[in-house]
Amino acid sequence: MTFDKRKVVYQIYPKSYKDTTGNGIGDLRGIIEKLPYLEELGVDVIWLNPFYPSPQRDNGYDISDYTAINPLFGSMADFEELVQAAKEHGIELMLDMVLNHCSTEHEWFQKALAGDKYYQDFFILRDQPTNWVSKFGGNAWAPFGDTGKYYLHLFDISQADLNWRNPHVRKELFKVVNFWRSKGVKGFRFDVINLIGKDEELKDNDAFDGKPEYTDRPIAHDYLKELNQATYGQDEDGMTVGEMSFTDIPNCIQYSHPDSHELDMVFNFHHLKVDYENGQKWTLKPFDFEELKHLFHTWGQEMSEENGWSALFWNNHDQPRALNRFVDIEHFRKEGATMLAAAIHLSRGTPYIYMGEEIGMLDPDYDTMSDYVDVESLNAYQELLTSGKTEAEAFAIIQAKSRDNSRIPMQWNGSENAGFSKGTPWLKVGKTYREINVENEKSGPIFTFYQQLIRLRKAMPIIAEGSYQSAYQDHPNVYAFERHLGDERLLVLNNFFAKEVDIDLPESYQSGKILLSNYPEMALSEKITLKPYQTLAIYQEKSGSKDNCQ
Ligand code: TEU
């Protein structure tokens, strides 16, 4: 059975959601406490970032024990209670499975280091490093103890890549997924899962820091089929999503096509690189609307035609807030937040909401480098200085691009520490929490708009199931698409700019019904004007006409 396309996922970064113990770190009981809030929002699934034992070099993506709870976040009893309590609120859990690599503190790596040959074959060891660059900076290989060999770490030096070619490794990892299934978990998010299929022969490659040597290799698809069969493929109503690093459309179709029996859906990141100079993250550039529009149209169209399925998102724990990147927040935070939401929730795919997005949270706007803690940001700052940037220039880049931007504590109210913790938060709260917080925003336009989007998706099959058709492709300011289901049509217009823009409406939509907008009702006619950051969805129940939206 295929997953339910009416479902909406909400992502929680447990470390920053709600601290109930006063240790400054969010915990599982904090999530239990907030389930009524999540039910009110209307979400169906919550994806939790890793909460397993970990030295926290990469905030839990460096796992040292896959089947336990890090005491920082609570106990296994708390987890079991969370699964149960969530169910009572109509919510399922989705866990983060980091199966491409484990922490060098994991017993597998420790045994390997101690000379155990069986466990040495759990890792990717070579006599000579290749020229591949780690995603967190520097060479991707590090000396393996004093053996003279090197181990591969595509991420931090403390995250050793696992050798999926070894069937024992696959068996161990499948056991992990089944362990959590046995706890009642039906959703899984697989971290960088398109990197698991490294070639047997590892070669130097100057292109893209070596990425083509280990990304989207055909064998990754084989491993996913095997994973599917050995674990979640047997579940009736689960949901799986793969995070695909540096990927392409044909592979994503294959990963998510129902006949492939690999995954239900895929994340890709191309649309979040449209403000990168020459594809480089640690640069400053205003976003390129043409590129964004082109990417959305190409992915939307091709995934629709070939029956692939995308996870749709603007924010996650690795990205600065989309509001800071795409919107004039000084003047149009609310309009921008709601427009961005509609552009995704009404499109074809499964929408993901990252905690705080539903209240229009912003980047923290820290004042000094010492407020940042993320390993990637700290490495990047040093590399920027080495490359000749001044401290002020390097800091401005970190401020705009750091992953800490989205990891700041959730803003619950205007009291100290934003109501997140009674202790000292592990990461400083953002500057805006006295105004932007759940207490203030819950009856406001952003939160209620998200509720409406979630409700509409459940009520209207065209939103959950309809095909995707690009519209107004040449419009310089508007990203627009149509959804088709039988005779039904839905046109969604999104003005990405802080100014009014005109649209010529085809006849069939002039008599349509406005399903949703982030501005008060307007009359439909041949020519309409969209206000700054306006989103407008027009529904036509029986479109007899073949009018094109140009
Ligand atoms: O991120 C995958 C990834 O490719 C990152 O390099 C991402 O593009 C980058 O962080 C953006 O700057 C996943 C997790 O989401 C991330 O939190 C982990 O650090 C990473 O895998 C390693 O497990």
Automatic annotation (TrEMBL):
<dbReference type="GO" id="GO:0004556">
    <property type="term" value="F:alpha-amylase activity"/>
</dbReference>
<protein>
    <recommendedName>
        <fullName>Alpha,alpha-phosphotrehalase</fullName>
        <ecNumber>3.2.1.93</ecNumber>
    </recommendedName>
</protein>
<dbReference type="GO" id="GO:0008788">
    <property type="term" value="F:alpha,alpha-phosphotrehalase activity"/>
</dbReference>
<dbReference type="InterPro" id="IPR017853">
    <property type="entry name" value="GH"/>
</dbReference>
<dbReference type="InterPro" id="IPR006047">
    <property type="entry name" value="GH13_cat_dom"/>
</dbReference>
<dbReference type="GO" id="GO:0005737">
    <property type="term" value="C:cytoplasm"/>
</dbReference>
<dbReference type="GO" id="GO:0005993">
    <property type="term" value="P:trehalose catabolic process"/>
</dbReference>
<dbReference type="Pfam" id="PF23915">
    <property type="entry name" value="SusG_C"/>
</dbReference>
<feature type="domain" description="Glycosyl hydrolase family 13 catalytic">
    <location>
        <begin position="11"/>
        <end position="407"/>
    </location>
</feature>
<dbReference type="Pfam" id="PF00128">
    <property type="entry name" value="Alpha-amylase"/>
</dbReference>
<comment type="similarity">
    <text>Belongs to the glycosyl hydrolase 13 family.</text>
</comment>
<dbReference type="InterPro" id="IPR045857">
    <property type="entry name" value="O16G_dom_2"/>
</dbReference>
<dbReference type="InterPro" id="IPR012769">
    <property type="entry name" value="Trehalose_TreC"/>
</dbReference>
<keyword id="KW-0326">Glycosidase</keyword>
<dbReference type="InterPro" id="IPR056300">
    <property type="entry name" value="SusG-like_C"/>
</dbReference>
<keyword id="KW-0378">Hydrolase</keyword>
<dbReference type="InterPro" id="IPR013780">
    <property type="entry name" value="Glyco_hydro_b"/>
</dbReference>
